[in-house]
Amino acid sequence: MAHPRLTNSLSSSSLRNLNPKPRLIPLCTCSCRPFSSQSLILHSHPLFLARPKPLLRFARRTGPPLVLAAVGQAEPELPQTSTPTVIPEDEEDLPSKSQLQGSQLRNRVVFGLGIGISVGGIVLTGGWVFVVALAAAVFTGAREYFELVRSRGITAGMTPPPRYVSRVCSVICALMPLFVMYRGHIDVSVTSAAFVLATALLLQRGSPRFAQLSSAIFGLFYCGYLPSFWVKLRCSLAAPALNTKIGATWPILLGGQAHWTVGLVVTLITISSVIAADTFAFLGGKAFGRTPLTSVSPKKTWEGTIIGFCGCIITSVVLSKIFSWPIPLSSAIGLGVLNFLGSVFGDLTESMIKRDAGVKDSGTLIPGHGGVLDRADSYLFTGALAYNFVKTFLPVYGV
């Protein structure tokens, strides 16, 4: 179509007198973008339209919008590029996803076995080795907890405690197992620590908030007070497990019969029961899981939880037969039930904190497992429940 404001036209004689190299007449007098002599094709004249081949044609380039080329003039050849094969996103990501899952599973198995062997050796050794290792784990877990409290997801609805308060609370939590080991009780230490934290928060600059106090005190309880019961469980129950046959063959250099105390036996049973509960619940949920357990942790199912419960009870009963402690079957079942409840509610508590924080893992210290809290959440309540069960319901707990 011709330009709406064309003012000149081309006569038939001018077409006959065209030179080999065409010359164009300016056709537009408007204020629009000027036409270049190499950017216009004259296709409106009837004689031009009647010819089988136009004298002039366009060659599309990557530079100027349109370039005028004479008939017979060689057009520059564009580089031949092969059309890339489009791979669907799902198929493209499939190998990388499978490789990533395989790497995560390998790290999880390798580091899980390493942690299990290390923890088993520490529990068997007992004494100050057990307490120092627990204190280091408590300090790391407390740091992870206060980082979760300071995360963007939680701070959107509350004010976190200052960093110096978080650090002081982490140190206090790490000192609690040592205090229990060498003082024998924890009530005074918890009360004193809570007083120190409350004083530090009230004397801070600015306006103290109740959310700061509540998150700090809960961190003191969750990361310091509860893990200290493992010291009481392993080291305070020093009565010998008289019926445990493995103690008779235990080397003298490693403590002999006296090394196998009720504290060692119940610690091994409790840890093994928690591992069995987590493992059976995971496998059962993968195979049969259909009904979600709670919105706090959407991946947990009722089917997996029931299978985990059965695995925990069976493990507790079998180990009680191996160690010949506790003798009553009802006591072994009761210990297994408490271990399972502590495992589940400890896991759900940490899941609730991570869900509010908007993170998947509490840390990245352990490849394939996350942080210390991710591995120890199932054990935080079980130590206290197992200790109180033995002290309350098994008064003659050595036999």
> How much is the average pLDDT?
78
DSSP helical segment count: 13
Q: How far apart lie the N and C ends?
A: 106 Å
- Count of distinct strands: 4
Give the class from helix and strand content and strand pairing.
mainly alpha
Alpha-carbon Rg, integer:
39 Å
Helix content estimate: 55-70%
Element order: H for helix, E for strand = HHEEHHHHHHHEEHHHH
Catalytic activity: a 1,2-diacyl-sn-glycero-3-phosphate + CTP + H(+) = a CDP-1,2-diacyl-sn-glycerol + diphosphate
GO molecular function: phosphatidate cytidylyltransferase activity
Transmembrane segments: 110-143, 188-203, 210-230, 260-283, 304-323
Pathway: Phospholipid metabolism; CDP-diacylglycerol biosynthesis; CDP-diacylglycerol from sn-glycerol 3-phosphate: step 3/3; Lipid metabolism
